[in-house]
Design a protein that fits this description.
This protein has one domain. It has 4 helices and 6 strands; from the N terminus they run E-H-H-E-E-E-H-E-E-H. It has helices spanning about 15-25, 30-35, 80-95, 130-135; strands spanning about 10, 50-55, 60, 70, 115, 120. Helix 2 (about 30-35) crosses helix 3 (about 80-95). It is globular, with a radius of gyration of 17 Å.
Protein backbone atom coordinates (compact mmCIF):
# COMPACT_ATOMS: atom_id res chain seq x y z
CA UNK A 1 0.00 0.00 0.00
CA UNK A 2 1.32 3.41 -0.95
CA UNK A 3 1.23 6.11 1.66
CA UNK A 4 1.01 9.89 1.46
CA UNK A 5 2.14 12.05 -0.09
CA UNK A 6 0.87 10.65 -3.35
CA UNK A 7 1.09 12.23 -6.76
CA UNK A 8 0.51 11.13 -10.35
CA UNK A 9 3.04 11.70 -13.12
CA UNK A 10 1.87 10.63 -16.55
CA UNK A 11 4.82 10.32 -18.92
CA UNK A 12 4.25 11.42 -22.50
CA UNK A 13 6.66 11.37 -25.45
CA UNK A 14 5.39 14.59 -26.96
CA UNK A 15 2.40 16.85 -27.40
CA UNK A 16 3.33 19.57 -24.93
CA UNK A 17 0.84 22.11 -26.28
CA UNK A 18 -1.96 19.51 -26.42
CA UNK A 19 -1.36 18.42 -22.81
CA UNK A 20 -1.04 22.03 -21.72
CA UNK A 21 -4.46 22.68 -23.25
CA UNK A 22 -5.92 19.72 -21.39
CA UNK A 23 -4.79 21.17 -18.06
CA UNK A 24 -6.03 24.67 -18.95
CA UNK A 25 -9.48 23.52 -20.12
CA UNK A 26 -10.09 20.99 -17.34
CA UNK A 27 -10.13 18.08 -19.80
CA UNK A 28 -7.17 15.97 -18.67
CA UNK A 29 -9.17 12.76 -18.33
CA UNK A 30 -6.16 10.52 -17.79
CA UNK A 31 -4.83 12.59 -14.90
CA UNK A 32 -8.25 12.70 -13.24
CA UNK A 33 -8.79 8.95 -13.61
CA UNK A 34 -5.30 8.02 -12.42
CA UNK A 35 -5.66 10.33 -9.40
CA UNK A 36 -9.09 8.94 -8.57
CA UNK A 37 -7.68 5.41 -8.60
CA UNK A 38 -5.37 6.35 -5.74
CA UNK A 39 -8.03 7.47 -3.27
CA UNK A 40 -9.90 5.14 -0.95
CA UNK A 41 -13.20 7.02 -0.73
CA UNK A 42 -15.12 10.00 -2.10
CA UNK A 43 -14.17 12.22 0.86
CA UNK A 44 -10.45 12.13 0.09
CA UNK A 45 -9.08 14.82 -2.21
CA UNK A 46 -7.56 13.64 -5.45
CA UNK A 47 -3.76 13.59 -5.40
CA UNK A 48 -2.01 16.25 -7.49
CA UNK A 49 -0.88 15.26 -10.95
CA UNK A 50 1.05 16.38 -13.97
CA UNK A 51 2.44 15.33 -17.31
CA UNK A 52 6.15 14.65 -17.62
CA UNK A 53 7.10 15.37 -21.21
CA UNK A 54 9.90 12.94 -22.04
CA UNK A 55 11.33 14.66 -25.12
CA UNK A 56 11.63 18.06 -23.49
CA UNK A 57 12.23 16.80 -19.94
CA UNK A 58 9.55 19.24 -18.74
CA UNK A 59 6.96 18.57 -16.06
CA UNK A 60 3.70 20.50 -16.54
CA UNK A 61 1.07 20.75 -13.84
CA UNK A 62 -1.60 22.89 -12.22
CA UNK A 63 -0.04 22.15 -8.80
CA UNK A 64 2.99 24.45 -8.42
CA UNK A 65 3.23 24.04 -4.63
CA UNK A 66 3.65 20.28 -4.98
CA UNK A 67 5.95 20.50 -8.01
CA UNK A 68 7.83 23.80 -7.55
CA UNK A 69 10.28 23.26 -10.42
CA UNK A 70 7.57 22.33 -12.91
CA UNK A 71 6.00 24.54 -15.57
CA UNK A 72 2.86 25.83 -13.89
CA UNK A 73 -0.27 25.75 -16.05
CA UNK A 74 -3.26 27.65 -14.70
CA UNK A 75 -6.14 25.21 -14.48
CA UNK A 76 -8.89 23.92 -12.22
CA UNK A 77 -8.41 21.08 -9.74
CA UNK A 78 -8.78 17.50 -10.96
CA UNK A 79 -11.90 17.05 -8.81
CA UNK A 80 -13.77 19.24 -11.31
CA UNK A 81 -12.70 17.02 -14.20
CA UNK A 82 -13.61 13.86 -12.29
CA UNK A 83 -17.03 15.25 -11.33
CA UNK A 84 -17.70 16.24 -14.95
CA UNK A 85 -16.71 12.76 -16.15
CA UNK A 86 -19.04 11.06 -13.68
CA UNK A 87 -21.89 13.51 -14.39
CA UNK A 88 -21.47 12.88 -18.11
CA UNK A 89 -21.64 9.14 -17.53
CA UNK A 90 -24.83 9.46 -15.46
CA UNK A 91 -26.43 11.87 -17.92
CA UNK A 92 -25.55 9.72 -20.93
CA UNK A 93 -27.18 6.66 -19.35
CA UNK A 94 -30.28 8.67 -18.44
CA UNK A 95 -30.55 9.86 -22.05
CA UNK A 96 -30.10 6.32 -23.39
CA UNK A 97 -32.83 5.04 -21.05
CA UNK A 98 -35.15 7.67 -22.57
CA UNK A 99 -34.24 6.53 -26.09
CA UNK A 100 -32.09 9.55 -26.89
CA UNK A 101 -28.78 8.95 -28.62
CA UNK A 102 -26.51 11.97 -28.96
CA UNK A 103 -23.36 12.08 -31.04
CA UNK A 104 -21.67 15.27 -29.87
CA UNK A 105 -18.83 14.97 -32.36
CA UNK A 106 -21.21 14.97 -35.30
CA UNK A 107 -23.39 17.92 -34.33
CA UNK A 108 -23.88 20.86 -36.70
CA UNK A 109 -21.40 22.96 -34.73
CA UNK A 110 -18.63 20.69 -33.39
CA UNK A 111 -16.69 21.74 -30.33
CA UNK A 112 -13.86 24.15 -30.96
CA UNK A 113 -12.17 23.15 -27.70
CA UNK A 114 -12.61 20.65 -24.91
CA UNK A 115 -14.13 21.67 -21.62
CA UNK A 116 -16.94 21.33 -19.13
CA UNK A 117 -20.36 22.33 -20.47
CA UNK A 118 -23.42 22.15 -18.22
CA UNK A 119 -21.50 20.02 -15.72
CA UNK A 120 -20.40 17.43 -18.29
CA UNK A 121 -16.98 17.01 -19.84
CA UNK A 122 -17.01 17.35 -23.63
CA UNK A 123 -13.89 16.54 -25.62
CA UNK A 124 -13.13 17.91 -29.06
CA UNK A 125 -11.71 15.61 -31.69
CA UNK A 126 -8.06 14.72 -31.27
CA UNK A 127 -5.57 14.25 -34.06
CA UNK A 128 -3.99 10.96 -33.11
CA UNK A 129 -6.49 8.12 -32.70
CA UNK A 130 -8.10 5.90 -35.30
CA UNK A 131 -11.66 6.30 -34.02
CA UNK A 132 -12.47 9.46 -35.92
CA UNK A 133 -15.89 8.25 -37.08
CA UNK A 134 -17.05 8.24 -33.45
CA UNK A 135 -16.07 11.83 -32.74
CA UNK A 136 -16.99 13.20 -36.18
CA UNK A 137 -13.51 14.16 -37.35
CA UNK A 138 -13.81 11.75 -40.29
CA UNK A 139 -16.79 13.75 -41.59
CA UNK A 140 -15.39 17.23 -41.04
CA UNK A 141 -15.01 19.41 -44.07
CA UNK A 142 -11.41 20.31 -44.83
Amino acid sequence: MLSSPLAVLDMKRGGLSFRRGEIETDSSVQLAVYSRLLVQNDEQPLPPAGYFMLWSGQLITAYPRVFPRAMHIEGPPLEETWNAITQGYISNWEELEQGEIRDLGNEQEPLSESGIVEGRLHLKSCAFCGLDTLCGKAFAEE
